[in-house]
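I am writing to request your help with a piece of structural work I have in hand. The matter concerns a single protein, recorded as an amino acid sequence and a row of backbone structure tokens. Could you please explain, in whatever detail you think fit, how the structure tokens follow from the sequence? Thank you for your consideration; the sequence and its tokens are set out here:
>
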Amino acid sequence: MWHWNRIDRPGWGAGTFIGLGCGVSLAAGILAWWEARKIKLIEGPKILALPKGVESNREQSP
């Protein structure tokens, strides 16, 4: 597609490659989310170490 200029380039070609690029980025995002989800299931939630006498905001909210 590099030998065509912006006027002679077929619309189906540009649309196909833009669609493929969006599909690949969607797949990468889903894969990253899925792997992060599996890591969180194995490692568990983050534990915050607070000094004595300091309460977290989560305990005070209703």
